[in-house]
Specification:
Elements lengths: L2 E6 L6 H17 L3 E6 L4 H8 L3 E4 L10 H8 L9 H8 L1 H10 L7 E5 H6 L7 E5 L9 E3 L20 E6 L4 E8 L2 E9 L7 H5 L5 E3 L6 H18 L4 E9 L4 E8 L9 H8 L4 H11 L5
Parallel strand pairs: 1-2, 1-3
Antiparallel strand pairs: 4-7, 5-6, 5-7, 8-9, 8-11, 9-10, 11-12
Length: 302
């Protein structure tokens, strides 16, 4: 029986989501017949994994440290096969500006952007409103601010003493329209989901609270837009050097027929409201089958 360590938790801003993802993946792996050990990842992760002695690691971590190549490097050093993307792909995808440079080289359309410090973004509009401020290396929409058209000044939150998303930011053109997402498993794009929410945008609560958003699968789109979104998601996955499961997010301005990629998630959520399990189910793969696929896909760069 294959012994699988499911790592989750950690100490990023996405800890609570990671706990939920990891615990549910662990339960699914047990139902599929694996010998599962659950690990709430600490800074002694190498010691935790060495003690657990797994045959493979199912990575349920989200956010900085668990998703940006750091944990992946630990598992490479330990020569442990692990799920999802490797060191370089994880680091590239986590950095919104670097990943957008890769997208552009691959011919995938992106929104206009500009790298700014928090001080610069707080002092004057870095782009003409409307625009979005995003931390360069955060997930789950943490620290995302929308500056609306006609705004006289930048977002006040940038000057708050409670700001905890760093000084390295990206200002990005605001693309109106519809929120779309596409999951990729290995070399296959699964489907296009449209996400709707009554909130200002698809923020943390919309993503993870019950009723925070509605998912329409398959998205009701022109056939060429569906094809383009799935093609771009697969190309993004390949251009970044990803493996396993990823999920790429898009905005579609249907008034101007403009589709742009926003980011690729190398550790997509695996909670009850998560999009990848929904898309897997849509193509006939149960949650247990999806988790088993991730485990069997685990590898490292030996």
């Amino acid at each position: 029986m294959k012994r699988v360590a499911v790592i989750y938790g950690g100490w990023s801003s996405e800890r609570e989501v990671s706990l939920s993802s990891g615990q549910q993946m662990a339960e699914a792996a047990r139902k599929s017949g694996y010998d599962v050990v659950e690990i709430d990842a600490g800074r002694n992760l190498a010691e935790q994994l060495t003690k657990a002695r797994p045959d493979a690691v199912l990575n349920g971590l989200h956010g900085p440290w668990g998703e940006d190549g750091c944990v992946q490097g630990v598992m490479e050093v330990l020569d442990l096969p692990y799920s999802h993307s490797g060191v370089l792909a994880s680091a590239l995808a986590m950095d919104k500006l670097k990943s957008k440079a890769v997208y552009q080289q691959a011919g995938i359309p992106v929104a206009q952007d500009k790298r700014v410090t928090r001080e610069e973004a707080a002092a004057a509009h870095p782009l003409a409103p409307p625009y979005v401020i995003k931390p360069v290396a955060e997930g789950s929409s943490f620290g995302v601010l929308i500056v609306r058209e006609g705004a006289n000044a930048p977002a006040l939150e940038l000057t708050s003493s409670n700001w905890r998303y760093g000084d390295n930011l990206m200002a990005e053109e605001f693309i109106p329209g519809r929120e779309l997402t596409v999951a990729v498993l290995g070399d296959r794009a699964l489907a296009v989901t449209e996400i709707t929410t009554l909130r200002d945008y698809y923020d943390f609560d919309a993503k993870y609270e019950a009723g925070g958003s509605q998912h329409v699968i398959p998205a009701e789109l022109p056939a060429d837009v569906t094809h383009a979104a799935m093609d771009y998601a697969l190309r993004a996955h390949q251009a970044l050097g990803c493996r396993g499961a990823t999920r790429s997010d898009f905005r579609y301005d249907d008034k101007r027929d403009r589709l742009v990629i926003l980011e690729t998630n190398t550790q997509p959520g695996m909670t009850p409201t998560s999009l990848v399990p929904e898309q897997a189910a849509f193509v006939g793969m149960s949650f247990e089958e999806l988790v088993a696929w991730m485990i069997e896909d685990a590898s490292c760069q030996r």
